[in-house]
Recover the amino acids of this structure.
């Protein structure tokens, strides 16, 4: 793996590791505020962040040694509505500004596996953004949180879907059996 791509993979690992923990913390806060469905959505995103971090870690498995990774992580615990806002903004930024340039750079270096992984995660982040914005919009305009169905996370790419998981993941083409229900 070329040095620039390796650095991108390591930094993406750090960013997803931070997102994993941030969503876990946001889930706990939503639980405290009696938003069980928002807490469940954040738990689903926690698992999605784990899926992404694992994918990046596995791509960098041949890179032995210790490395510093660079990422941005807000250290703020706000009300759930604020956390939904921050989470949606982060998902939008990752889907539109973080992952697409990494994918383009990896592709230009001939690192097709990394490029494809970055492109898939960008698509997943855009889908997560939509879910978060919908949840936020409902909470801002209603007296209670929305009722939502089961939340399933694709173990292949981290896509979160509500209701019954698809037969084949629309992002990574994983089978339905790869989706995990988040309670």
């Amino acid at each position: 793996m070329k040095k620039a791509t390796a650095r991108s993979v390591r930094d993406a690992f750090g960013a997803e590791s931070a997102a994993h923990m941030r969503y876990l913390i946001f889930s706990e806060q939503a639980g405290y505020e009696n938003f069980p469905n928002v807490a469940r959505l954040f738990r689903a995103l926690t698992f999605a962040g784990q899926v992404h971090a694992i994918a990046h870690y596995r791509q960098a498995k041949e890179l032995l040694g210790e490395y510093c990774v660079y990422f941005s992580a807000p250290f703020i615990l706000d009300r759930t509505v604020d956390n939904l806002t921050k989470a949606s903004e982060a998902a939008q930024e990752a889907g539109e500004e973080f992952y697409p340039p990494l994918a383009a750079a990896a592709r230009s270096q001939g690192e097709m596996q990394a490029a494809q992984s970055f492109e898939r995660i960008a698509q997943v982040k855009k889908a997560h953004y939509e879910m978060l914005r919908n949840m936020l919009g409902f909470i801002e305009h209603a007296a209670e949180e929305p009722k939502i169905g089961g939340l399933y996370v694709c173990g292949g790419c981290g896509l979160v879907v509500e209701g019954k998981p698809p037969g084949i993941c629309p992002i990574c083409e994983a089978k339905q059996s790869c989706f995990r229900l988040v309670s």
In short: The mean pLDDT is 91. The longest strand covers residues 151-154.
